[in-house]
Amino acid sequence: MKKQKIIVSAVFAAVIAALIAGIILTDSLYVRTEDISDVMEDAVLHERNRVALFGMEVNPGLISAFAVTAVLLVFAAIVRIFVIPRFKTVPGKFQMLMETLVGYFDGQAKLNSPHRNSFLGAYVFAAGIYIFVGTILELFGFQVQAVSGVSVALPAPLSDINGAIALGCLSYLVILGGGIVNNGIRGAGKALIEFSLPISMSFRMFGALLSGALVSELVYYYMALSFVLPVVVGVLFTLLHAVIQAYVLVMLTALFFGEVSEPHVKKPKKAKTSEV
Predict the structure, then answer these.
(1) Are 145 and 151 in contact (CB under 8 A)?
(2) Is the pLDDT of residue 180 over 60?
């Protein structure tokens, strides 16, 4: 045991020494072409590194959104046509994974909206999977060529404020539609009271995903931090944000949908007592 501990300690010390040596030897070779403030600004606004799409210059986040949507639709079609008909009574690993995911989102819909939840379950499942897959996308570092000629990595769709606002407003429209279908004007009134809901949902997702992107940009910008640490920071921030933001949106949408779709029960009128 002592020999193993000594060997592990020696290997760890050698790795640390190699990292320090790499930082010292390569620091003079590293030339920064842009200021850190410009890097941060472009990570937020995506104004400089735009991508051409059908003759228009768009943010890379829009390309990410289209790519994630296409991948999910193709994957869903393949699963529905070729995989689901072969499901067995004793599930395999993939079948168990699919049933667990569907059961979780369906359970959240039924728990928070026990009266009307068939459409809600389908929506929160689609929205949660979209957020998770879209956030994980930035881990792969797919490159596209910007109009300026430089190569840029595709960001998470919701790290673009437009994508976050679109998903937040869509969730609010689902809540509003559920209130109108189930309770008419009364349900619409309940939903309209929460007029700040789409704003809070949008900026919550945008802020959380953007913070991870900014931290990653900061770590990559400084040479002394660009050894090993970006892998840990990038993976941890991305996975945490993917899970947390999907969970938060699902819970908020299901909770408010359940409130506005709850049937209104009229209170019985009290019988008037006649005076003697």
Answers:
(1) yes
(2) yes
For the stretch 137-152, pLDDT in tens is 888 878 888 887 888 8
**Any idea where the domains of the chain sit in the sequence?**
34-48+69-142+154-261
